[in-house]
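ASSEMBLY PREDICTION REQUEST
Request ID: AP-0331
Submitted by: J.K., bench scientist
Number of chains: two
Total residues: 622
Priority: normal
Notes: Please return the full assembly, not individual chains.
Input sequences:
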Amino acid sequence: MNTFKVLSPGIATFVEDLGRYGYYHLGIPPGGALDQASFIVANALVGNDKNTAGLEMALMPAKLEFEKEAVVAVCGAETTPKINGVEMPSHTALKVPAGGVLEFSYFKKGARAYLAIAGGVDVPLVMGSRSTYPLGGIGGFKGRKLEAGDILPIGTPTGKPSPKSLDKSYHLELKEIEELRVVLGLQDYKLTEQSLENLFKDIFVVSTQADRLGYRFKNGQKFNYKDLPQPFGAGANPSNITDACYPVGSMQAPGGNEPIVLLRDAPSGGGFAMYCTLISCDLDRLGQFAPNQQVRFKSVSLQEALQARKAYQARIKAMVESLA
Amino acid sequence: MGFRYSFGGDTFLFVEVSEEGMSLEAFFLAMAICKKLRAMQVKGITEICPANASYMIAFDPDILPHEKALEILKSLEQEVVGTQTTIQTRLIEMPVLYNDPYTHACLMGFRNNHQCREPGSTLDPNMTDIEYARQMNGYASVEEFIKAHAESPWFVSMIGFVAGLPWLYQLVERAKQIEVPKYPIARIDTPALTIGHGGCFGCIYAVRGGGGYQMMGITPAPVWDPKQRLPYFKESMVFLNPGDIIKFSPCTESEYNAYVKQVEEGTFDLKIRQTPFSLQEWQADPKGYNQEILKALA
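STATUS: Completed
Returned structure:
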């Protein structure tokens, strides 16, 4: 069996695949790569199936040593891979020699880089997925983020790496002010008209409290609530509801303060009112925002969300096909 | 009862069964719909999550158009109204150390997050959560409050937040429900297996982590066991299901410590009894019906 060793783990490096489904009713969130498109493309580059487990590295990348020769590719956040100290291209299948050390430059753009390894990270399947669920201590490597000294197994490669690099037009781009599209609903009726207006007018800033559970946004105006009777059991604060399930991507604002958009490792339910939900394809985009990224929220209809979903799926398909 | 349907983006559909909030009737309706929906095995529905007085599904709009998803759920609303409300469930006795040293140390560390130190508060700035809950609910002493908390059983009304965490709704009339505000600022830490209370709900924190419910005590009995070491985890890593009924029984610190040791050794077990539960019979005589079903634990 082939392995790689973690020389330094970075800030938060996790084993992920595309996620764990069918257990949300037990409080177990989907998990999985936050930027699924980048994850899929990284796997396509090394000839893996799209759901093959790889590494998600947040903000500060890991440094790894490979026992035997391996084929790897990094996508997502803009970073320069280095093999034994030599700079190599990203978005390209690379050969790491036996005993080779793979490291990465700091991220010049984006928040998460995805490392695919031909054959995948061969951790056990838990409830149908290899994604890490750190709160429950299951999945991934020992149910936690990687630490220095960890030695992880690599599976047997099944496909052929792509001889091409991913075209530059498909690399991550981030504007000075990014836009996130949401569908209003859930308990939006609790907010005053003015607060709803502010939500789509204010320019928010991603706070440092931004991880796989959720992203907190600063610099917006405080939310105000209509004078409505509280449902029984909710608690007195108008930002509370009778505890319910949370959609992945939904936005809440405890106490009317900074809004939080939930992500793939978020609590599956709780007692805060939700005002809108990020459309599914913009979840990938949010996962690439680093702290201090400026963001504007845009309200779209469900029809527009479904059109955007189709367009995004077509883009991922085109990216993967461009590597064949 | 007033069902309210709302899409959560393009892949979730959220249904409030009752806009008036929590009630056993609303919970039974949500549970009945989710059960039927599960049996239907609708292609494209990927998650079915019953909750306290609501439920939610996740769906794949590429397989199941959103209009169709809405139509299916609305038709189930018609079907369940007036359905039979007797369920077959489990009655579980669970030891609790109230006013324990672990949650006490934790809550004292988070006093600045608590109501007792909010601007303008006239409360004792060092009061405990259970003392606060006692005052909010008008009990003469903490002992009396604990008696009310432990005397009547609790329905598992939802599983979620984190893996295996149960929300609990006490089987007493609405006027007797214990109600406490949640922390104004959520904590970043809670001991595993803390018994919490927020709004009208109790909970058992399945793992150590953040939380906003007031802390009442702690149980030695795990509710999430990924290694499935204890006998009552044979079937699943998650112990409890919506509809299960829990009876808390206060224990002493030395009993608690002995149970914790048994948990570590893998020998700890719980008293679990099968029981039917009829919503109508309970509504007719809550106190008498509780006493009747609790006999199974005697």
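REVIEWER COMMENTS: The mean pLDDT of chain B is 96.
SIGN-OFF: pending second reviewer
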